[in-house]
Input
Amino acid sequence: MTLIQLTSAAALSALLFTGCNKDSGAAAGSNKVRVGYIGLTCEAPIFSAVEKGFFKEEGLDVSLVKCEWANYKDVLALGGFDITHHLVMYFLKPIEQGLDVKFTGGIHRGCLRVQAWTKGDIHMIKDLRGKRIGVPGMGTPPFIFANRVLGANGIDPGKEITWRVFPAGELGLALEKGEVDAVADSEPIGSLLIAEGKVRNVADQAKDPPYKDEYCCAVIVNGKFLAANPKTAAAATRALLKAAKWVEANPAVAARLSVEKKYLASNPELNTVAISHLRYVPSVSGAEAAVNSAAAEMKIAGMLSPSTDVPSLAKRAFAHLDGVSDEWLQNLQVERVAGGQVPPDQDIRLFAELILSDTEESCCKAQKKTFAAKE
Output
């Protein structure tokens, strides 16, 4: 099966509305907006926008819609919720195939990695040729990122790599048992494997050019909702972008808020580890650039059709909204909460090491496993 077929299958295999709490769509011109979420670390701006009142400041009546990975794209496209923020790469293939959704602004950078076993001989991307790479699923964001990196470095991901699928929380074990040579993962798995000393980074979306300046997650809106409610879509986008800026200013508080309000199954320390590796510096132009760069490399890697015109796809995938601009973001001020920042002299990996050294009976250990499975 080709990479295009694999990605297409992932995009089309959803059970549509199964597993989502849904209600009927808002009427045109309504101030009601439904925000989809899964329960992931990087969704901190969604939770913060609700709890800090950023949606209310925009005059919106907000409700959250809990979904699962399996049907997330389809539920958004079919109107099960109106807006969210999510990985650009995750939506580009479905958009190429006709999914009616639009990106409207960048939320954060840097949540994906390709990592190799420390006892192996893989130090650079070129060393991955002919190797076995573990991923949490075919068509998942880590899989797509790894394909991009490989394709950009002249390695055919479909012919020169053996892909092995494991639950996200078992990727480190697969390395340890010699079942794979490298893994592609997302936070907080990457930080935990580093803290354990099991891996070295081969490709890090947070630090390696050209990926370190690329927005991995962006606000994305249902196309029909946007057409019927452009002012509401713009207001909801502003609320999420403001929340992203607030999370950047107060990462420790955002991490605690997400856990204590039970938006995700983790603990404050582990969630702080993961959030601290991300850069929540919202940008409109940055998101538009990311759509172009991600699409270009996905085409090289064989994950988009060879006939796809990247500039045309990017133009179709992005919408500029009134009152949502880089100038507005630059002038936007957010509070800095006392104790909301990670101390500058604190090695964030120490948090992960504390969690990893916990006893099996610890609630943190159990929560870590639950959260890892979600990632």
In short: Residues 1-19, 357-375 have pLDDT under 50 and may be disordered.
